[in-house]
Every structure is written in C-alpha cells, then in structure tokens.
C-alpha cells in the first residue's frame, strides 16, 4: 500500500507520526485482527533471553483501532443502506396512497376474474370485523386505564355505569362467545396438525429418495446419432406451443422448440395462437414463416372462435387430421424454453412401457432473483417440484400435470376423453382422468425447462386465484367418477382426501381462518386460547421444511412464512369461488410475461448461417422492438395499486397486536405485528415489481 500523507500519514520530512505501518488485506470484507500485519512481520527479532521470535513488532493499539474503524465504516454503510431503503419504501407508499388506484376499479376486477358481488361481500365482512375489533380495543384500553380487573371476584357485585356494561360484556363473551371460538380454534389446530404431518411425511419421502438415489431410468435410450431415424428410438412427436397475446416471449419459445435435437422428419411444431391482437398475430405468423424458410417443420394455427381458453385451443389442435401420424405430444407454454436434448431425455422413458402416459419435467426460472416476490415464489415452486411432484411420482406414479414441459402419449389423452373446457385447470383435469383410467406418470427432477415467474403482485394474484379455484371446480365434477371407477381403495382415498381435500381445500381454509381470523379474535376474547406452539413453533418448522429444497433462500424464511399467510386471503377467496361455482371461478386470465431472455439468447437459438444477419429466421429484434414500443404507447399503462382486502386485514392484525400488549402476550404480539406489516406491504403493492 502506498504511504499516506497529510492528516492520516507522517508529516513531510518529520517523524512526528512514526509508528508501525498498517497493512489491511481487503480480500475479505469481514476484517479481523488476524488479517492485519506490518511489513516487519516476516522478520525475526532476537529477544534479551537469546530466543528468536518471528515478527519485529507486535500488534499495537493503532492496529486494533484500524480494525474497529473499518468495522464501524461497514456498519455505517449497512445502516445507510437500510435508511435509504426505508426512505424509498416510504416514498413509494406515499405515492401509492396519493395515486389512489385500487383493485376495486372496474378494469382490475374484470381482469382478475373475481365476481364483484363475492368481492364486495368478502370485503364488507373484513371491514365489519375490523370495526368490531377497533371498538373492542377502545373498550379494553379504557378498562386498562381505569383498572377494571374483571378477573377479580368483585365481578359478582353489581356495578354502575361503563364498568357495569363492561362487566356484562365480560360475562357474555365468557359464556357464549369463547366456547364457539375455542371449538373453531381446536378444529383448525387439528387440521393444521394433519396438514403438517402430511408435509413432514412428504419431506421424509424426499429424503429417502435422495438417500437411496432413486431416479427414473428409461428401459431403452436413443442412440446419439439423431440424423438417422432408424438408428435408435425416435418416434413421431408433435410439439405444441399454445399462446395468447404473449408477444414478449413468442420468439424465444419458437426458437427453442425449433432447435430441439430430434430428427426433423419425426417431429412437427404447432404454434397455437389464440391472440386477439392483430399486431401480435402478425408478429407470430411472420416468425413462423421465417423458421419455415429455414426448413423447420412448423405450422401456425389461429382460432376465430376462442372458446374454452387453453383447453379449447389444445382440443382444436388435436382434431387435425395429421395428428394421427404422431405417437406423442410435447406441450410448452409461450414462456418456456426447453433445452435441445429435452426430447432425448423424456421420450425414451415411453419405450417398452405401455402403461406410461406422461413424462413431466421440472421448471427452472430465469428471473428468480428479480425481486422479493420472485424469490418467495421460487421457494414454493422448488418445494412443489423437489418434494411433492417427485415423491408422488416415485411412490404413487401419479401427480398433477403442470400444464407445460411435459410429454403425453396421445393414446392416453384419447383414452381419458381428451382436453375438456369445463374448468380453468385443464392440466389437472386430464391428469386425474388419466389416473382413473390406469395410466402411470413419471416425474424427472433432473430435466429442467426454463421459464418466467410473475414479477408483479397483480399478475401473481391472478395466477394464484386460477390455480386455487380450478381444483375445487374439478373436485365437484370428478368426485362421482372417482367413487365409481375401478381403481383401488387406497388410490381413491389418496385422490379424495390428500390430493383434493387436504392440499387444495383444507390448506387455504385453515391458513386464512387460523392466522387471520381466529388469532386476532383470541386477543379480544382471551378465554379462547391459541397455544404458542401453534402460532410460532409449528409454522416455523413447516417453513423450514419448505425452504430445504432451496437452501440458498434460507435468509428469506421469515418473509416466506409471513407472505404465505398473507396470500391465504387470495387462496381462500379462490377456493370458495371454485367450491360454490361462483362467477370468478370460470374466468381465465393469462399471466403477464416480461420476456427476460436477452438478445444474445435469441440470436444463439437462430440457425448458424444467420447469426450475423438480420434476415431469415434470426429474430429481427430492432423491428420487433419498434412495433412493441408503438403498441405499448397505444395500450394501457401499468400501475401499482392498493389492495383493499389486504390493507383492511393489516389494520385488523395491527389492532389485535395493540390489544395483545395489554395482556403481555409476547409471541402473539410479535407475530401479529409482523404479520400486520406484511399485509400492509402487500396491500400497498410494495413487494413485487414497482412501476415508476
């Protein structure tokens, strides 16, 4: 290090500040005394006793002071970053409130697919509950200030005025309100324990799979040379890309599928465009034409009547006469980009395995670190694929089809009745019907297909509403078929009690009821008790189990726990809509994509001879960018919004937290406080993409 001058170094020409020069090694930001040395440390010093000691000078106070200064500088930097983040968060919240855009606007309600009547009733219930809580908090604060100790034996004596009214309320809640709340609490705790046990068993199953290194292996593999169809197992494969107004991602998905390593004569790509935007239709049609000019076997299909959403699109495509020439069909949503060896790693599992109907690959995500919302989604989906799908695939040969990144045997689709438009979860529908007809499934945890996560809370909320209302629709429709079918009793029990009731109905029900309704109520009706282990320890253990498949996400374990409880509002509302067949249960909203693939990614997927020119099948990025920019100017702008239900629940939980202070319930107070803050952040739309 060069010598310093001025205030911090020695004076020019003088020895006033002479001392041991300090050298600080900067490789590690966690500086410590062991990392500080002087230039003379490598020299030996002869002591008075004649012994030799390495290091001419010992560590002195100045060196320790430098360590402390560097530590203080780092701490100050962290505090400055936190202060800056807090200021930015406060500014965003202020702008959100000033803008006044809420999810109650007509356009947003229509886009989310929620029934206005159900939405208003649910919100009215939350507001009424909040009003009662505020009133009870005022009463409890007045009682605390005036010293009305109603647990005392003096309650039996007649009192006058406000104290008399409070005593009457005390006796009424103890006799009539508390027993009902306690019964509901005990029921939810039982459901909570059953669901926790199911989660624990699944994790143990995943641990067993890893310990024994269980992995599905094909009975016969395709030979490396894919140019000769007769050299290995290369059956006829149909590849479908259903899309709807997804001009941000169509290029990368078409390019990835056209570059699949499979004999060109043995697979055909169908681009199933349901877009109602003429510009998007033109762009996709031109992209298909470019790949056709380069020899790719790809066709473009557009429906005039867009009935049945994605299921109707797939059903229409399967009705083509040339489909009978194909044995398997691979499906990829518009934002999915399979690796070139995808078919080579999935299709061979079908050979000599006539009972196999589906091979499902797992998802990987290009934008998992984009913001806090995508990180929390990543934790959930990692657990879903690593634990739920893998365990069910290994031990039961059944799981819910994920709708994309999978290969179906066409005979299994036809045997199960084909695609049906009766629900918004056509993928789960066909999987359940195929299972009832005896077909088996395989999940490949080591085969990944790249895709995107929703980056805005609005898009994620729409997606979760569809994912949780559809299964309840399907349960109503499939229950008679499950009971009548000839599969074993244990498979019926798994479908009814585990697959549908426990994981699709009970989970959102108890999450919302227990942590958003019962827990605040027990603060105002203390005669009904909710144990600490239900509030803190078991949820923390379950969150820890959920985060194990993605260990790098461990720092987000607390935000994950709080956010899952926050999302229970949306999931509960969706579950009720699907169970009782309300209007919002039948609405399909396409999840908004951002198109995270870079220009380099798109060019790398183009044919080799066209990577240095703008024509042919290489994506014409400049022209597309101009067209998309023009369309964005004509379209509606994106905005962050205020979500009224989440905001009202945050006020409710913070009110209950204030009440818990009076009874000095530590764990309950901290949980309610942080859960209330979590609802507040989500209600102000501060967790996902921030639109400036």
UniProtKB/TrEMBL annotation:
- Pfam families under this entry? Glyco_trans_2_3
Where is this protein found?
Golgi apparatus membrane
Give every Glycosyltransferase 2-like domain span: 329-522
| Any single Gene Ontology cellular-component annotation | Golgi membrane
- Residue ranges spanning the membrane: these are 122-145, 174-194, 505-524, 667-687
Query: Per its record, what are the GO molecular function terms?
Result: glycosyltransferase activity
Q: Any keyword Membrane?
A: yes
Keywords recorded for this protein, A-Z: Cell wall biogenesis/degradation, Glycosyltransferase, Golgi apparatus, Membrane, Transferase, Transmembrane, Transmembrane helix
Q: What does this protein do?
A: Probable beta-1,4-glucan synthase rather involved in the synthesis of the xyloglucan backbone than cellulose. Seems to work simultaneously with xyloglucan 6-xylosyltransferase. Xyloglucan is a noncellulosic polysaccharides of plant cell wall and consists of a glucan backbone substituted by xylose, galactose and fucose.
Task: Indicate the family of this protein.
Answer: Belongs to the glycosyltransferase 2 family. Plant cellulose synthase-like C subfamily.
PANTHER family (UniProt xref):
GLUCOMANNAN 4-BETA-MANNOSYLTRANSFERASE 9, XYLOGLUCAN GLYCOSYLTRANSFERASE 9-RELATED
Q: What is this protein called?
A: Glycosyltransferase 2-like domain-containing protein
């Amino acid at each position: 290090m060069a010598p310093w001058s001025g205030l911090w170094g020695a004076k020019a020409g003088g020895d006033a500040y002479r001392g041991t020069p300090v050298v600080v090694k900067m490789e590690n930001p966690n500086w410590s005394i062991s990392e500080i040395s002087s230039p003379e440390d490598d020299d030996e010093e002869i002591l008075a006793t004649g012994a030799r000691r390495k290091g001419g000078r010992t560590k002195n106070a100045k060196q320790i002071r430098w360590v402390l200064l560097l530590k203080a500088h780092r701490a100050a930097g962290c505090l400055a970053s936190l202060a800056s983040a807090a200021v930015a968060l406060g500014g965003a919240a202020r702008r959100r409130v000033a803008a006044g855009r809420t999810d109650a606007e007509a356009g947003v309600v229509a886009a989310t697919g929620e029934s206005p009547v159900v939405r208003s009733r649910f919100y009215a219930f939350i507001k009424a509950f909040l009003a009662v809580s505020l009133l009870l908090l005022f009463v409890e604060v007045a009682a605390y200030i005036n010293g009305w100790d109603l647990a005392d034996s003096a309650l039996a004596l007649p009192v006058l005025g406000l104290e008399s009214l409070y005593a009457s309320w005390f006796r009424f809640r103890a006799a009539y309100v508390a027993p009902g709340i306690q019964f509901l609490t005990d029921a939810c705790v039982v459901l909570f324990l059953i669901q926790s046990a199911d989660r624990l068993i699944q994790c143990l199953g995943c641990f067993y799979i890893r310990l024994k290194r269980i992995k599905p292996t094909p009975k016969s593999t395709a030979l490396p040379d894919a140019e000769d169809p007769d050299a290995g197992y290369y059956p006829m494969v149909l590849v479908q890309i259903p899309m709807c107004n997804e001009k941000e991602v169509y290029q990368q998905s078409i390019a990835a599928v056209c570059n699949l390593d499979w004999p060109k004569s043995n697979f055909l790509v169908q681009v199933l465009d349901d877009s109602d935007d003429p510009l998007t239709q033109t762009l996709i049609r031109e992209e298909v034409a470019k790949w056709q000019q380069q020899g790719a076997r790809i066709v473009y299909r557009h429906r005039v009547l867009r009935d049945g959403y994605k299921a109707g699109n797939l059903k229409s495509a399967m009705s083509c006469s040339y489909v009978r020439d194909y044995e398997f069909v691979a499906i990829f949503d518009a934002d999915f980009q399979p690796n070139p060896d995808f078919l080579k790693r999935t299709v061979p599992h079908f050979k000599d395995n006539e009972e196999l109907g589906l091979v499902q690959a797992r998802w990987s995500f290009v934008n998992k670190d984009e913001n806090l919302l995508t990180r929390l989604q990543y934790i959930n989906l990692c657990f879903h694929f690593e634990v739920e799908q893998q365990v069910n695939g290994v031990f039961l040969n059944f799981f819910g089809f994920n709708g994309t990144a999978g290969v179906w045997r066409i005979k299994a689709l036809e045997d199960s009745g084909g695609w049906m438009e009766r629900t918004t979860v056509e993928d789960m529908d066909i999987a359940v019907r195929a299972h009832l007809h005896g077909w088996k499934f395989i999940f490949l945890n080591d085969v990944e297909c790249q895709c995107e996560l929703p980056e805005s809370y609005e898009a994620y909320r729409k997606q979760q509403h569809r994912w949780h209302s559809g299964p309840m629709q399907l349960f109503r429709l499939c229950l008679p078929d499950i009971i009548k079918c000839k599969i074993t009793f244990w498979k019926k029990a798994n479908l009814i009690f585990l697959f549908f009731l426990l994981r699709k109905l009970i989970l959102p029900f108890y999450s919302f009821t227990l942590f958003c309704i019962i827990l605040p109520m027990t603060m105002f009706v203390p005669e009904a008790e909710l144990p600490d282990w239900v509030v803190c320890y078991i949820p923390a253990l379950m969150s820890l189990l959920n985060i194990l498949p993605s260990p790098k996400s461990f720092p987000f374990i607390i935000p994950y726990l709080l956010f899952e409880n926050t999302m229970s509002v949306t999931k509960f509302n969706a579950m009720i809509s699907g169970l009782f067949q309300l209007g919002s249960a039948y609405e399909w909203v396409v999840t908004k994509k951002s198109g995270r693939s870079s220009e380099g990614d798109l060019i790398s997927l183009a044919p080799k001879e066209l990577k240095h020119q703008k024509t042919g099948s290489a994506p014409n990025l400049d022209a597309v960018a101009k067209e998309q920019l023009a369309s964005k100017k004509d379209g509606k702008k994106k905005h962050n919004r205020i979500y009224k239900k989440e905001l009202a629940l945050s006020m409710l939980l913070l009110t209950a937290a204030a009440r818990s202070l009076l009874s000095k319930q530590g764990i309950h107070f901290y949980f309610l406080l942080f859960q209330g803050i979590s609802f507040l952040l989500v209600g102000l739309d501060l967790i996902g993409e921030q639109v400036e």
